[in-house]
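Researcher: Last one for today. Full complex below.
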Amino acid sequence: MSAFLQYLISGIAVGCGFALLASGLVAIHRVTRVVNFAQGMFAVVGGMTAGSLLSAGLPHGAAETAAVLVAGAVGLAAGLVATGKRGTSPQSALIVTLGLGFLAYAVEIMIWGDNPRSHPGLGGSVIVFGAHVQKQSFLVIGVAAAVFALLGLFFGRTYTGKALTACASNPYAARAVGIDVVRMGLLAFALGGMLGGLGGVLLTPLQPISYNSDVLLITNGFAAAILGGLDRPGVALAGALTLGVAESMVAGYGAASYQTVVALALMLTIMTVRASRRTALQEEAAR
Amino acid sequence: MSAPARRPLPSPGTAAAIAVAAVALVLPVVLPAPQVSVYVLLLISAIVVTGLSMLMGFAGQVSLGQAAFTMIGAYTAALTATHGVPTWAGLLLAPVAAGTAAALVGVPLLRLRGHQLAFATLAVQLILLSVVGRQEWAGGDIGLQGVPRLTVAGYEFADDVAYAYLALGALGCTVLVVRNIVRSRPGRGLRALATSEVAAASAGVPVAVYKQAVFSLSAAFAGLAGGVYAYYIGYVAPGSFPVLLSFEYVVMVVVGGAGTIWGALAGATAVTLLLQVLNDVGTREGMPASAPAVLSYAVYGLLLVLVVLFMPKGLVPTVTDRWRRRAPARGGAEAEPEAEPAPVK
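Model: Here's the assembly. Have a good evening.
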């Protein structure tokens, strides 16, 4: 029972990290229709930057915030390249973000080398009903919950958030009422960068990352986001939690090396089931 | 094909094909020994890229996991050969196994389109890599060593030059098959479905069957390449077929131009040569140990971004378009209308 609780909480924590990543993916896709392959890279950049700033002597909190801002700037830059040029289709933009991921590999290896890195988070663990749970897990869950609440307020209550939602639901109408759709797309990319970076900053103390961790991060984020059809952040959150807990349970009770297989198989199943409900006509009409 | 009867002189395309084939045949003999192995690996990539280019350019489907099928082909060849099956049979089985695997995987997967299919194929490769790395019969993460050399009718393919000709032959078969499919009636159906599945279906194109067939066929070519690779290197492991290899194939297709055979060949050649040059630069004295990796990643990234943004059709279509526009009088108008590659989705 205590083992179960331990796996459950660490699974939820990891799931929250995936959820942040997935919500960045959703924010970008909703506004720009681009599936951002570089989303995992934002997390790697965020996590690594936080580690470097901490070892440079910045206090906790400041280092993490700065890392998230750096990731946001990287997100903005990625958005500029991927959507800045007129007439780039969302499909081409996917390939562009793939290319940006490669460029990031080069930069990351130059700065941080190619070994997995980690940075200290909240140290120690607490005992809950006999289960040892790292304090960092609770931090991840708490921060993620706060961020999701803030995101809800941002999209629902602020003018910018509503403008973003308007671009998501109908870019043409949004443009007609004077919303700069291109700028909103860039804003979405910056937001996506920050969310991805935050996910990376929070997860790195739990699982060390290296430059090529982005493939697994992006497939996990995508798996979570695809549950909500890449458009609904709430469903993405539920998907990410399911994924995190499933992986943690498989790692705990089965073999650790099969945890990604389970996550990926889950994603494939969900995708194909969803796809069988949508016909080609609906997809082409939505373009 | 009645083309020769209509045009007594070979068209520029045919002339170029003959010239390229001649150069390709001479190269293994004239190249210095270390370069021959680069040439063999280039040819092996070109086989995969030609198949992938057909899938991306004509059927409009992106596969980010094409190396998974190369891996299946390589393991098939290696496993059968180490279990006493004649190696020539192993080479034939490699594309069959990869094609069959693709057909099975394709049943659920090909309902997906665009970025979903791209991620799904990536997921399939990640699953395959993880599962194979755990199988004892497949050698686990260490892989299979001591794959015997390919022997056909008593002739053993022993040196690099022999493998260069083997790979050339395999590439030639691939190019011929793809060329004939593209020009056939099903080929036109394929291009139609890449533009709009609904329109193609209502015009009587069996969309699901065609997608399935092209997916399997492109996987079979990847499997063939994997088979040649296994006998050439003599060793297969999960690490030989990383996700990065799949991305590399996509880079080659996009750089050369999806949906044209010339584009596939040019893309594979350009990227391989560029990486080779950079590798030489990166391993010079005084360079840090990480230099080759940094340089190659930077080049992949830059190539992909710049080509997609500024040359969306890819190298070969852009160049031929420009050439045609500059010389409209010289048969540009009467030249056989080249198949317009479908947009990649």
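Chain A touches chain B through 47 residues (CB under 8 Å). Chain A has a mean pLDDT of 81.
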